[in-house]
Amino acid sequence: QVQLVESGGGLVQPGGSLRLSCRVCGSIFSINVMAWYRQAPGKQREVVANISHSLTTKYADSVKGRFAISRDNAKNTVDLQMIGLTPEDTGVYSCNADRIHTYDYVTVYDSWGLGTQVTVSS
């Protein structure tokens, strides 16, 4: 019914930048909170940043001042601009939507994309 599709990952050198994008596909009326998570090798998945429908943002302490989350409610997209990347930022980045309301009067809870790999290495 709904699908989250991420793009923009890749290999970047330390200090470099990347922009991740996530598009929510389907008959979408509105989406509550959207977030980016990441999972580094051998570690648990952690929330990187989230943004509410009213554009209130929150960030993990480790990325404050370097990452910026944004969304376009009309296009059902959420982006993550990342600068000053370090090897510790390496991982699979996944997009999440906590509640998606569709035009079919269905609410879909806790939807995830497949993830996109970000590798920071020289």
Please describe what this structure looks like.
This protein is mainly beta and 122 residues long. Helices cover 0% and strands 57% of the residues. Strands 2, 4, 5, 6, 7, 10, 11 and 12 form an eight-stranded mixed sheet that branches. A four-stranded antiparallel sheet has the order 1-3-9-8, with no helix packed on it.
Record keyword descriptors for this entry:
single chain; 122 residues; eight-stranded mixed beta sheet; 0% helix; elongated
Count of helix runs:
0
| Range of strand content | over 45%
Large-scale geometry:
elongated
End-to-end gap: 41 Å
Low-confidence stretches: none
Major beta sheet, specifics? Answer: 8 strands, mixed
Q: Give helix % range.
A: under 10%
Ordered list of secondary-structure elements with their pairings:
Elements: E1 3-7, E2 10-12, E3 18-25, E4 28-31, E5 34-39, E6 46-51, E7 57-59, E8 67-72, E9 77-82, E10 91-102, E11 107-112, E12 116-120
Parallel strand pairs: 2-12
Antiparallel strand pairs: 1-3, 3-9, 4-10, 5-6, 5-10, 6-7, 8-9, 10-11, 10-12
Summary of the model, kept short:
This protein has 122 residues and is an all-beta fold. The protein is 0% helix and 57% strand.
